[in-house]
Each structure stands twice: as structure tokens, then as C-alpha cells.
Specification:
By secondary structure, the chain is of the alpha/beta class. The chain is about 45% helix and about 10% strand. The strands form two sheets. The chain has a three-stranded parallel beta sheet with strand order 1-2-3, with helices on both faces. Strands 4-5 form a two-stranded parallel sheet.
Length: about 180
């Protein structure tokens, strides 16, 4: 379930041997009826939808709240009215002690997701948090590479700690969490 039709097409091609087990829906988590339709006959949900660019979030706060907070509530509501038994939401280290809107919306989404465990029995809602997924959409690395060409790399704070992992490590971590 995604708004990205190109990635949907690519996944359909890549996983064509699993047609009986996988379905691909275009849609937006802001659209509750479409989300509920997509959740039919689903066992596990990995909620990865979010607007993630810090600067974009600061300039477009209403859009970020609609996606990261209201969209997450829509995911929860859709799970309630479906057969989904297990849901895991992907979060960010920026939610641990938010200093910007992106981090604050992800912290709110995390709290909504974990709190959902209080309402409906026989469903499990969990959250995983990690840092920069190297070379993923929103990764800081392409920005650092571009800055390096100019001779200077700008960082938020020289004493800050950055948490990074590869895309494969992120996927493996989520699968391990789903299994546990």
C-alpha cells in the first residue's frame, strides 16, 4: 500500500511468483476507506509511511501532521476493523527526544501505536526505532556527498551521535522483531 506507483510496479515484477500471497494497492494512509479496503485479508502490517524530510516538515507542518499522526491513526483504525493480528511501525531516533516537528510527529505516532494495544485484544502493535538508513530515501549521505564536492560538510553538531544502518540491516531487524 503506497502512493508510489513506480515502486508498486517494480515490486509486482520482483515478487510475481508470490501473486497468491501478496497484493499491491495504490493509496494514501490519509484515505481511511481505501486503507480499510487494503487491509482485508491481511495478517501482518509493517507501517512505514511517513513524511521524513526535517526541513520540509518545518515548512509544511499541517501536511506532516496529517500523514505522520492522522495517517498513523488511520492505520490503527483500519487494523481494528480487520483480521490483522500483528502490526509494527517503523520509527526514527529523532522521536527519542524531538527537537523538530518531524521527531515530534513520529513520537506522537509511536505513542498512538503502542497505546493501541490497550483497546482491542488479540492484536499486537509494536514500534521499532533506528537511525539513518544509508542510501534510502531521506538519507543524509547523498547530501554529505554533494557537500564534500564543495569541500565542506555541514553537520548539526560536531558532538552529536549518528546512528546508521544499511537498508538490508533495517529489513532484517524488522523481520527479526516480527518473529519475536
Amino acid at each position: 500500500f503506497s502512493r508510489d506507483e513506480l515502486k508498486q510496479y517494480e515490486m509486482t515484477e520482483k515478487f510475481k511468483n508470490y501473486k497468491e500471497k501478496l497484493r499491491f494497492f495504490l493509496g494514501d494512509i490519509r484515505d481511511l476507506p481505501r486503507l480499510k479496503t487494503a487491509m482485508k485479508n491481511v495478517d501482518i502490517v509493517v507501517h512505514a509511511a511517513a513524511l521524513k524530510q526535517v526541513e520540509t516538515a518545518e515548512y509544511n507542518p499541517f501536511e506532516v501532521v496529517k500523514t505522520n499522526v492522522v495517517g498513523t491513526q488511520n492505520v490503527i483504525d483500519s487494523i481494528y476493523s480487520s483480521n490483522v493480528k500483528l502490526a509494527i511501525s517503523l520509527s526514527t531516533d529523532k522521536a527519542a527526544a524531538p527537537i523538530n516537528l518531524y521527531g515530534a510527529t513520529k513520537l506522537t505516532a509511536d505513542k498512538l501505536f503502542v497505546s493501541a494495544n490497550n483497546y482491542i485484544p488479540n492484536k499486537l502493535f509494536s514500534v521499532v526505532r533506528y537511525g539513518n538508513v544509508m542510501m534510502s530515501r531521506g538519507s543524509v549521505i547523498p547530501s554529505f556527498k554533494k557537500q564534500k564536492l564543495n569541500g565542506t560538510i555541514n553537520i548539526t553538531d560536531k558532538d552529536m551521535t549518528r546512528f546508521s544502518l544499511t537498508l538490508s540491516e533495517g529489513v532484517e531487524f524488522v523481520i527479526k522483531c516480527l518473529c519475536n
